């Protein structure tokens, strides 16, 4: 996927701006508070209907205005052109794709894959298992056409079983959900296990480029005890689940464990190393997306100067250049000095919400 043009109105501190993007690198420079991250956030919002910085969507509308508008043209892997638009007011949202109104953000997300690298990317290692399950789910959503439907089915059955547990219903009206939950849960688990194996097979080469001096071990833990089926786990844990009024076995409790010599990677690595691991995992995900679905995600890289030393920053730029993906990146100190690996680029400078293309 390549973004061709982007128009932003009344988004954060950006009043009205438009960009005609480079198919390769797009550097966005400016001082602190200029509006650089907001440009990336606007692209992210077009692909997902939400922000990567906040869950409070009303903060996205420029102060003093009652709605924001985003619009972009892009071409997909088959070279087909599309238009996507988002209009957001306080409590209202209209998403359009190729002039038709779209109800679910996932319809756009499938055509508009984005991979976001930010100073907070190390959270993939540092925070709870939910971030890592989301990582797996994002990847599978883009490479397995059936995954979303299977996942939604699982969520539905799980909430029915949990409701029965919460409402203290008869044992039979709880266990009636075991078989359907186990059958869909095992499917999710198989998808995720396969996906982890695929990520693992690409990971070492990437970590080597970041010069990580350790071997990282990836292990998918499915969310129930080893060597038994999910149906057996649900059966075995029924008393436990009744006491807690919630289902405690299944892929909603899965973990992607990341260890280095048996230590959790998050407590072993330096901040910059953690970020390199997170970037590597995300990069492998992009690679799989391109290999398996044919669609190369657009990269959003906020604050290239944060945490990485020159070697790591150049290594990652080189990886992106080799992948021929479109990249939007922000920096406070780009002065037109382009790294050697970048052959095609545009440079945009933002000042107090105003963006200019530099030549
Ligand atoms: N809803 C809003 N309306 C108007 N301005 C806003 C709104 N939300 C945030 N801002 C302001 O927009 C400005 C740009 O923020 P942004 O995070 O994009 O800056 P930045 O260029 O990425 O800065 P940094 O280099 O510090 O990361 C900030 O001054 C912020 O306070
Ligand atoms: Mg910023």
List the helices and strands and how they pair.
Blueprint: E1 2-11, E2 14-20, E3 25-29, H1 36-48, E4 67-75, E5 81-89, E6 92-97, E7 100-102, H2 105-111, E8 114-117, H3 123-126, H4 129-143, H5 147-166, H6 171-175, H7 178-209, E9 217-221, H8 230-236, H9 238-244, E10 255-260, E11 263-264, H10 265-268, H11 271-293, E12 298-301, H12 310-323, E13 327-331, E14 345-351, E15 354-358
Parallel strand pairs: 3-13, 3-14, 8-12, 12-13
Antiparallel strand pairs: 1-2, 1-4, 4-5, 5-6, 6-7, 9-10, 10-11, 14-15
Adenosine-5'-triphosphate binds at residues 12-13, 30, 32-38, 59, 61-63, 332.
Protein architecture, described:
- By secondary structure, the chain is an alpha/beta fold.
- It folds into two domains: 1-113 and 296-359, Rossmann fold; 121-294, RecF/RecN/SMC, N-terminal domain (Glutathione S-transferase Yfyf (Class Pi), Chain A, domain 2, Up-down Bundle).
- It is built from twelve helices and 15 strands.
- The protein has a six-stranded antiparallel beta sheet with strand order 2-1-4-5-6-7, with helices on one face. A six-stranded mixed beta sheet has the order 8-12-13-3-14-15, with helices on both faces. A three-stranded antiparallel beta sheet has the order 9-10-11.
- Strand 4 and strand 5 form a beta hairpin.
- Helix 4 (129-143) packs parallel to helix 11 (271-293), helix 5 (147-166) crosses helix 7 and helix 7 crosses helix 8.
- The relative contact order is 0.18.
- The model has no long low-confidence stretch (mean pLDDT 95).
- Magnesium ion (MG) is lined by residues 36-37, 302-303, 330.
- Residues 12-13, 30, 32-38, 59, 61-63, 332 line the site of adenosine-5'-triphosphate.
């Amino acid at each position: 996927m390549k973004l061709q043009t982007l128009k932003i109105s009344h988004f954060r501190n950006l009043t009205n701006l438009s960009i005609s993007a480079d198919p390769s690198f797009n550097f966005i420079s400016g001082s602190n508070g200029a509006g650089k991250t907001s440009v990336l956030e606007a692209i992210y919002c077009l692909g997902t209907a939400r922000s990567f910085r906040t869950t409070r969507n009303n903060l996205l509308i420029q102060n003093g205005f009652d709605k924001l508008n985003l619009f972009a043209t892009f071409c997909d892997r088959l070279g087909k052109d599309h238009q996507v638009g988002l209009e957001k007011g306080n409590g209202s949202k209209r998403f359009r794709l190729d002039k038709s109104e779209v109800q679910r953000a996932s319809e756009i997300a499938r055509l508009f894959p984005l991979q976001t690298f930010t100073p907070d990317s190390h959270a993939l290692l540092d925070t709870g298992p939910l971030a890592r399950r989301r990582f797996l789910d994002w990847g599978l959503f883009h490479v397995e056409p059936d995954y979303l439907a299977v996942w939604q089915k699982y969520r539905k059955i799980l909430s029915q079983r949990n409701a029965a547990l919460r409402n203290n219903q008869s044992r039979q009206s709880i266990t009636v959900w075991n078989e359907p939950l186990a059958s869909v849960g095992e499917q999710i688990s198989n998808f995720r296990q396969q996906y982890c194996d695929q990520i693992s097979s690409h990971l070492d080469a990437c970590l080597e480029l970041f010069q990580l001096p350790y071997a990282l071990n990836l292990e998918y833990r499915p969310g129930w005890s080893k060597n038994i089926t999910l149906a057996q786990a649900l059966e075995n844990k029924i008393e436990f689940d009744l006491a807690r009024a919630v289902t405690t076995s299944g892929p909603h409790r899965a973990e992607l464990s990341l260890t280095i010599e048996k230590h959790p990677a998050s407590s072993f690595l330096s901040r910059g190393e953690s970020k390199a691991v997170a970037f590597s995992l995300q990069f492998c995900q992009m690679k799989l997306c391109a290999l398996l679905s044919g669609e190369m995600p657009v990269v959003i890289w906020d604050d290239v100067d944060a945490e990485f030393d020159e070697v790591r920053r150049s290594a990652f730029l080189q990886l992106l250049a080799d992948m021929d993906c479109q990249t939007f990146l922000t920096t406070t100190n780009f002065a037109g000095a382009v790294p050697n690996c970048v052959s095609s680029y545009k440079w945009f400078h933002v000042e107090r919400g105003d963006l200019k293309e530099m030549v």
